[in-house]
Structures are given as structure tokens and as C-alpha cells.
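Repro case for the chain-ordering regression, as requested:
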Amino acid sequence: MARTADKRVERSKAAVLAETYRQLTRSGISGVSIDEVSRVSGVSKTTIYRHWPSRSALLIDACSKLGHASQPPDTGTLRADLHALVTKLGEQLQSAAWATVYPSIVDAAEREAEIAALQTGLHMAFMAPFHAVVERARDRGEVQPEKPTPDVVAAVVGPLFYRRWFSKEPIDERFIEATIHAAVEAARSR
Amino acid sequence: MARTADKRVERSKAAVLAETYRQLTRSGISGVSIDEVSRVSGVSKTTIYRHWPSRSALLIDACSKLGHASQPPDTGTLRADLHALVTKLGEQLQSAAWATVYPSIVDAAEREAEIAALQTGLHMAFMAPFHAVVERARDRGEVQPEKPTPDVVAAVVGPLFYRRWFSKEPIDERFIEATIHAAVEAARSR
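-- result from build under test --
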């Protein structure tokens, strides 16, 4: 009996999450309506709020489906590690669902503390492999001691984010190579 | 008689724009409600839509109040020109109303063509001084011919945007200097 009830709960939660994720990727975070989630999933609002105490709690769960950070590469050089990471980031920025949803999270984070905390968590997870490869390069002597790791990450990731969401210019192989080259040179020169 | 009517029209338009701007800076672009603008300004929706054919048209007018690009500096070196521009950008990112509103425009631009066009216009105007100082530096031989101007702009502006809206790390004097140094070196080296 208890197991049947558990399964029913799991099915309800999965239906709610799936519909929340659908609305999130279609309309951004401000476009998620609990009324509509309830209607489409067939799960009552009372039940939804029993599983997720707030709209933000549900959004956080749905956002965790947007993607997860990959293992950092370990090729032996900062340039090749960054090439692997930045090439993948460039592809994702131009095709992944999260690239379309992310501005809605950044926007809501300007006004809502819970969404700001959600954004911080997503950002740390997305950027962890970048920080890891720069720290390893530092251990090998490829990064000057006085150059902070976050500077190197900002020099690599900043121009790509700028092109995707602000200037809308192409993120092509030439641009990626030039951005990595500049960041690697800045990290190793005094 | 005609002049009195003109003045009344101007007053109504100003009241609508002021209230739209207030909602825009408080709640972002998705938080602007024409019903609420009409109620607070005391101008009927029919009259609002006589002056602005669509919600986007009104938003475009209100956004033009967010700020305007400054004249590009002309100090004689790329480094000093960028220092002036980037210091001002850093201040604005941390205090200007547009820095809080901009993510809502970026978000809406992902789904609405009219807002995307508005964003393009704002972006071109904001970035024009950066492009101008890099082009002047190119004329003086400070930028290698094979380094495109948009790359230099992305290397300078990208890391600041990244810190303001994504990593939320401080944009201090040290970071600004390091970012300018890296961009200037990348522009002038082969």
C-alpha cells in the first residue's frame, strides 16, 4: 500500500516538473504559471505546494534539469583544456535550451533573493570546470602567481557571454581561438 | 486653440512615459502593464495607443530615457581612452538604473522580435564610443591589422558584463586595469 502511494507521488512530482520545465524553456522563468502547471499536469495546487513550499523551490528543481557541468578536461596544457571547454560552451550558447532561459534567471535575480541564490548555484556549477583547469595550470607554472583565477575565467567566458546575449555577433572558431589566445597570454605574462 | 490641445497632448505623453519608465526601472520590461500605466497616469488606453501603436513602441520610447552614449574620449592612447570609458562603464554597471533593467530587455529579446530590435539599437549606441576609440587606435598603429575591432571591444566589455550580471564578483580598479591591460596587449601583439 505504502509503495503504491509512493509511486503515485513520484508520478505526480515528475508530471509537475516536466510541465514546469516545458514552460520554463518556452517562456522563461517569469512565464511559469503554477495555475497552468496544475491544469496541464493534472496535479492540484495544494499537492504541488505540499512538495515544493514555494514557486521558487519548484523553479530551482526545474532549473536543475537545464544541464549539468561536465568533468574538467586534463590535457596537460591550459590552452588545450580551455579549447575543449570553450568549444563546448560556444556550441551550448548557440543551441542549448539553457542559453535561452538563462537571461530570464539573470533578470529575476535582480529583484528576487531566492532566484539570485538559484543563479549563484547554477553559475558556480557551470564555471567549476573553468576554475579547475586554471588552478591546475597554475600548479604547472602556466599562470603567474599575481593573476587571480577568476580574472582568467572572466577573460575567457566574458567575451562569449557578451556575444551570445549582448552584441549577438557570431561565436565562431576564429573568435574562440583569439579569445583563448589572449587569455592564455595574459595569464602567463608578467 | 490648437496650441492648447498640443500642450495637453504633450502633457499626457509625458505622464505616460514617466509612469512607464517608473514601472520599467522597478520591475523590468515584463513588469510594465499598460492597464497600470493608464490608471496611474490618468491617460486612457485608447489615447495611449493613439500615440504608441504597440506596447513595444512605448517601451522603446521609455528605454531611450535609460541613458545615452557619451562622446568617445581622445587622449592619444588606446590604454587611456579605454581607461576613461571602462571606469565610467564600471560605475554605471554598479549604480545606473539601466544596469538593473538591461537583463529584462535581454530576456524579452530572446522571444520578441521588436524587443530584439530595441536591444540591438541600445547596444549599438552604448558600444559606439568603444568602437570609435579602437578604430582611432588602429589608425595610430596600436592595433594589429588582423585583429578585428569587435574582438577588442568584446575583450574589454565582456569581462565587466560577466561580473555584473553572471558571476557577481566585484568590478574594482584592479580588475578594470587588468582587463584593459590584457585587451591592449592582445590588440597590439601579433
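Ordering looks correct now. The mean pLDDT of chain A is 93.
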